[in-house]
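Name: dcxr
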Amino acid sequence: MRFDGKRALVTGAGKGFGRAIAKKLAECGAETFALSRTQADLDTLKSEVPSINVINVDLQDWDKSREEVGKTGHIDLLVNNAGVTVKSLFIDTPKEQIDRIFDVNFKGTFNVSQVIAKRMIENGKGGSIVNMSSIMSEKAVSEGCVYSTTKAAIDMLTKCMALELGPHNIRVNSINPTVVWTDMTRPYKKELMQLLPMTPMGRFPEIEDVVNTVVFLLSDQSGMISGESLRIDGGLCVH
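Structure predicted for dcxr:
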């Protein structure tokens, strides 16, 4: 698939899914903006793909995020990938932890999407938005209460965005991967390995599987898919 002439923004592009997605979009011809709160990650990304534009901002800062994202101009393709989590039992989770995870995972997605969608509407050419959710929006894992709740919120936000933005030819979908081993998931390895015997395909997906799904949903080949939460789980949810 090619995205020549398109402009793309990927949040959380310093590591994991986001980094791989940003590199793939650039490879496919899109003028790509990579947003991360970690400048060192952006520096190494820029050294690997010199054509990528980098944005250093923490999505927990609502106003600064709007300012920096607004500088990008019109964006055709948006991937809201940024996310954080911390292991914590429900009974022990402090307010500060709840605020941090909601600020980045949910409010960050809401904020960036709001800025970009307004530009898409003004431009009149439509667009495609993919929100990063998780299979944890449907399945509870011990010590992951806040993270799972934010992802359930992302799934509903996706449906609401698709409903309101559809008349402007803007499609919005979320993807819901099961376990993919990244810096975020490795601390939960013991808990998450319990999902493997419940996975009919007998394995967890690779980062490439997530990247390919995002690229498909961004492309015109998925032109009538909107408002969906697409699981990437090897059949986990049939149990």
